[in-house]
Records
---
Amino acid sequence: MSGAHDVRLGMPQLPAPDYPAEVRARLESDAKEVIARYPDSRSALLPLLHLVQSEEGHVTRTGVRFCAEILELTTAEVTAVSTFYSMYRRKPSGDYQVGVCTNTLCAVMGGDAIFEALQEHLGVGNNETTDDGKVSLEHIECNAACDFAPVVMVNWEFFDGQTVESAKALVDDLRAGRTVEPTRGAPLCTYKETARILAGFPDQRPGAVAASGGAGPASLVGLKLAKGELAPGRIVSPRGESEPADAVPPRPGEQAPETHPSSHDAPRPTAASDPSHPSGPVTEEGE
Ligand code: FES
């Protein structure tokens, strides 16, 4: 870090302090285990950033220095990566990172109202932490759980189908130290504990693995439709092929609809599928 400057003040910046010897030794041992999983040591940077985050709750200059030294990178290279990804925090924050999805579907289903209510309830704004250091509130982007909108994430665990009242109760429980259960997935743990799991050290608590759930019924609707289990009907095959052999026929007594529910999304005939297409059939040479 020698020669680094604080660009805001134009002043030389002091080198980042090192960890205390005991902490350094422990982190080095963990880091070696992580690095050994990769053919190229620098590939371990992302888990190592989680590892140093598990120590202090955010990526400090000391953590950046540690990663740089152990991976033989520059602190500028490590900083560039750690500031790119939103899962690395750059300032002290709460034990529980409460993210309210305010992307389009969650927003219209109540996410915007939940975020506003939590700001008022907790007395903090976006990316701010309650005075007791328990909860940090933030907007988050879509977490691909739109079918359970509006979604709140706590330390990356899902709390589906939230309301203003349930979200307020959730943060109250977190601040009071009461146990809360995510809708699915592993049991909730603190941000530091979560960071250690993300670094590649599995949650050893009894039941942690067994508790991991899969996709819920709403997530499986598309799959069931595709299999004909929810709305059996004609399978629209792309490129004019015949129905697949495993197409699910209508159940006895059920009337097959004229078209598949999603037939309006079926591919249109193209030069590749329609010999009479004005562009003519696609040939090997033409591709
Ligand atoms: S819009 Fe919120 S999870 Fe997708």
---
Amino acid sequence: MSTVAAEIPTTMQAWQVVQPGPVETTTPVEFVQLPVPTPAAGEILVRVLACGVCRTDLHVSEGDLPVHRDHVTPGHEVVGAVAALGDGVTGFELGDRVGVAWLRHTCGQCKYCLSGDENLCPNSRYTGWDAPGGYAEYTTVPAAFAYALPDGYSDIELAPLLCAGIIGYRSLKRAALPEGGVLGIYGFGGSAHLTAQVALAQGARVHVLTRDEQSRQLALDLGCASAAGAYDAPPEPLDSAILFAPVGDLVPVAMRALDRGGTLACAGIYLSDIPELHYEADLFYEKQLRSVTSNTRGDAREFLAFAGAHHLDVDAHPYALADGLQALRDLKAGAFAGAAVLVPDH
Ligand SMILES: [Zn+2]
Ligand SMILES: [Zn+2]
């Protein structure tokens, strides 16, 4: 380490995935005491101020995603303060507020990296899956993958922007929404409620389709044109749709709701199996079905700049860091609309 803030302790509290399994019936994560990590060359040590609870953390904790690192600390929506700089880090000062997101490493040499599609890099690594994340008092991040954050938001409000916001933003791009077009959003949690606001700010008409009553109300409060059940037909054909709910059964439902030439983007890293599609009803007339895989750093910077220019209402629910398991359980149970955020008690 070349530069260190004076008051860094030697140990910290953190969550680890010990035995992936259902959060409501087992204890897949444990709250433990760990050494505070030391940033390697090119890395920043971040004192965590807030860390969002993303559905992907649930997939990592429950084993829907394969284990990439034993006893990993989840969390990839980290807002923190720079506490120490590893050798060779430039562009950041001690105390700067920085963001740590899901994408943590790309090779920079493969054909995807070289063509601007680093989200498809086969050598990519991810925060809170391949490396310890932000359900902790401290974490590290390669400086090349840390983000400057916009003003005008609290730490708790910023956290959900770092995955929910960024992935939603990429999903909206992948959904190819025409200017002034009609967008359908299936599922309305942390990512969707931010994406809806981006689409509305861009002049879209937005219809929300979700099973949860509270989320439907939130959608209407944010200015969406309608909110109905997930399997209901929207009031008009959709130019574009984004599937945020990890429910493959909704793919044919959403494809049928598309107008001719419409595009459905599946936003999640995990989706239950998609049932049979029928060519004429679901895909003909040049409808498109697309996935969304992570994001590039360019997407992240673009979105954070958008959030700086257009204030987004972030529906954040703070939890003490020690209540991380409860936050995962509440997320799974759909106990709140919006996003849970863990706050360490430094
Ligand atoms: Zn690459
Ligand atoms: Zn995420």
